[in-house]
Amino acid sequence: MTKVRPGLIWFILTIAFGLTACAQSSDCFREDVFCAGLVTDALGIEDHGTNQNTWAGLQEAKANSLIDQADYIESMDTRDYEKNIAYFIQKGYDVIITTGIGLRDETLRSADLNLDTVFVGINQPDEEPRLNFISITFPEDQMGFLAGALAARVSKTQTVGAVCETSGIDSVWRYCEGFRAGALFTNQQIGQNAKILVVYRENGDRESLFIDDAWGYDTAQELIQRGADVIFAAGGATGQGALRAAAEAEIKSIGTERDQGAVLAGSGSGVVTSILGNANFEIQQTLRLLDDENLNESKSGQIKYVPLVQIFPESLTREMDTLLLALSIGEVETGVPFEKP
Fold first, then answer.
1. Residue 274: exposed, middle, or buried by beta-carbon count in 10 A (0-12, 13-18, 19+)?
2. I want to staple 141 with a disulfide (CB 3.0 to 4.6 A). Which of 25, 174, 302, 339 is the partner?
3. Is the same domain home to 126 and 172?
4. pTM summary value
5. Are residue 97 and residue 151 in the same domain, yes or no?
6. Region class of 286: left (phi > 0), else alpha (psi between -120 and 50), else beta
7. 246: domain range?
8. Residue 235 sits in a domain of what CATH number?
9. The pairing of beta strand 159-164 with beta strand 118-122
């Protein structure tokens, strides 16, 4: 009687529960069948953010005949990343997409070992270009700028605040300095002098990076006490603590990274919009242009915002759309460098 190792059983169960629509995966070895697989980070497919938007883009790509088959695996734990990527490689998938900086090392190692497969890393900066790796990142400074411009525009106290994870992480720094620049932009545009309060979590425990909900909550409360009536937050659960404090104080807030209003539900009732990368659009564009010989170069993707809540007039949405376009074509620049000086 053949014995099956417990570790192998766990691997099989993980794949079985994480993978959708794998019944036809053996066809991916055929040259006339083009397959794309998505490996999510540990937030899962319904994260109201990059994973969900990327999957929606893959489904649309299939509906538009850009690809023949689209599947995903939800990673339950960071230890799943490499074996989930390996599953798609072993099944002959042409393109493997991974989401989030946490999968970057596993994606690059897989790209180095499997030169016939194209890998797409979303929110994974490309420091060492590879012919079979496509990096798609989104301009955090522009996302913060749009949030800051909106915050200053709707503030009644003329005081706005940003609660941010440590500035030692360049992406967080770009979000929040972008916010500062956007609020200043609105000040200049409408001739006001709104006060801009930006606070970083500089002296906290590194083990609490992105999960210091209590610090985010307390810091937002302090900014509210100083007169802020709009709060922007960046930095995972740390930022979500700030959004929760804004909801309890019944003031407006702006999220980023995910649709924070949907993620937080009742505890995010103050969230009027969230600014995100448009992964849906970018993954379709990447698949459409896959034969472009320069496609392996780093790509800065488009951004979008969750529709404003109904308390705002339609004219404000038009202002947001105009500014978003101006940022995308370089007509308005944030002035925020890519790395913290």
1. buried
2. 174
3. no
4. 0.88
5. no
6. alpha
7. 140-277+310-328
8. 3.40.50.2300
9. unpaired
